[in-house]
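Regression test attached.
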Amino acid sequence: MTATAETTAGSRGSQPPVPDGAVTVTVKIRRFNPEFDDEPRWDSFDIPALPSDRVLNLLHYIKWYVDGTLTFRRSCAHGICGSDAMRINGVNRLACKVLLKDLLQTGDKQTTITIEPIKGLPVNKDLLVDMEPFFEAFRAVKPYLVTYGNEPTRERIQSVADRERFDDTTKCILCACCTTSCPVYWTEGSYFGPAAIVNAHRFIFDSRDEGAEERLDILNDIDGVWRCRTTFNCTDACPRGIQVTKAIQEVKRALLFKRV
Amino acid sequence: MSLALDKPRQPRRPAARRSNGELYSWLFMRLSGLLLVVLVLGHLFIMNILDGGVHKINFGFVAGRWASPFWQFWDLAMLWLAQIHGGNGVRTVINDYARKDSTRFWLKMLLYVSMVLIVSLGTFVIFTFDPNISSN
């Protein structure tokens, strides 16, 4: 291995000219390189940015022109794929959906933006976390259509009202913003987490699905919905505006009254 | 400030324990909470506000109240509900925050023993209270 700890060049060469109207902001990133670091450390970068930039643009700037070793996930960069969930100024957000102008300090004060990996999942490198425990909880609630008996010869019809019941929870993009904002998920080893419950909700309340009982049984577990403390961190964190806590409460109610 | 967690996630999910225990404990917290609002506020009002407040409380006052089965039942209900409600709350906190299984187990044992001790001692006193006990 020939890599060295101090890499200062970006991956795309020299810095581009600073555009008109740019302000200098400090981006403070919590970094961890498993090859060199025992403990996570903070790195600060002073970079020029436009108020119309998204936080993702700042990360790109750092990676492309300042420090090519900065590691983070992103795919579509437009709030659809859910790859770039991170803790921005202490709250979970998608870096591609947060505008710099909403984070700028008023007056002449220097703006500092802190960026950390989402909490509660093992950090692989810098802002990149191992999502496997998150997806394991997701798979555990059977997030697919479960039916019994003979397949109908025609499509499974559903009324508008029946579709409306789970409309909110169909919006989930599995970015893990909600689950990794949950204090119970941070400390407790095996809580399913809000995202898994949201995706269970999507099928439990689907009139075409016949697996509601199995899923409710799974979520009635000690690691299921009863661990929820209605902190509302998840609802606040969701980049798709899903009423996560409400969905969890609806699952609780279904369990309580044994009725979907 | 350290965000690193000792055991961030368990690699494997333990087999689901199928029981309604958590449901009942959740429900109990809501119902006992409602009852406790009435019982505790009533208790505070009688003991601390009505008839000269806290200064009227002495051996005779307590003896007089516990002569009536109504107040015996009131205090008994308050003792049991408050102890189990509070104990269940602490159990939840231990479940959430204990990092090691052994820590979790021993903290819960300590909690359960203290709960049983306080509930049985209180119940014993309420039912065997002797107003004619000599005060020497």
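Expected vs. actual: identical. Chain B has a mean pLDDT of 85.
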